[in-house]
Every structure is written in C-alpha cells, then in structure tokens.
Prior knowledge:
The protein contains two helices and nine strands. It has helices at residues 13-19, 58-92; strands at residues 9-12, 28-32, 38-42, 54-57, 95-100, 106-113, 116-124, 126-128, 134-136. The chain folds into two domains: 9-76, no CATH class; 95-131, no CATH class. The strands form three sheets. Strands 1-2-3-4 form a four-stranded mixed β-sheet. Strands 5-6-7 form a three-stranded antiparallel β-sheet.
Amino acid sequence: MATATITIKKGTTAEWTEAKRVLDDGELGLETTTSGHRIIRIGNGSTEFMQLPVAFDIEEVREIKEGMDTDAKAYYDDMVKRGEEYIAEIKAMATTVELTDDATAIKYRMGISAGTLYFEEIEKETASDNTGESEEVTE
Length: 139
C-alpha cells in the first residue's frame, strides 16, 4: 500500500497576520489562536490567509459534538434561539436611503439588508422640462 504525507502550512494568528501569506489555490493552512482554537482555511491563490473565510474550526465542531452528546434537544433549542437572535440583529442593522435623481426626478432606494447591497427604482415623479410645462417621466 502506498502512503503519502501531506504537510499543512501552520502558524499562530499573529504569525499569519504578520506574514500576509497567500496560499496557492486549494492549499490548506492551519491557524492556532491565542485561545487554542485550531482553524483551517483554504487558499485561493490571491487572498491573504487571514482574509480567507474559515473552512473548519476544530474546537467549534468539538463543542457541537459535546453539546449534542450531553442533551441534543436542549442544544438544538439553544442553537435555534441564538439563530433567531442573530437574524433579529441583522434585520436591525438594515440601512435604507431614498434618493431622487434631480435630472429625471426618478426616486431610488439603496440599502443593505441581511448582508446584501441593493439599489432599486421605487417611483417616478412628474418632471418639469425647460419650458416650465410638466411631462410624465417614462422608462
């Protein structure tokens, strides 16, 4: 049977931050935090390691397993409650601004909601042309 050894790049949070290392696409890196968490991130060939999303947090998985082993129903209910609280926080952070284009009198709504940036036309108004007469603005 053939065997192979895979070596994963590893360092502390401070070492990764200082190095500003960019992992190759698909290359794995292991970060050890000051609290002892071991986090795996997967390189994309262009983003610094610390800017990559967390692919796997070993301690979080361990905490989930322990919670499920102790009392699955209570753990599940707690996770649902925390999720609902988090969603409420996100909704509270939603920001909306309404703008009017002076040249066309078209109104727009721009905002951030649930992490999504949006820009939409909300209404058209009657605009005046240079003669002082009103005309309906159409698409």
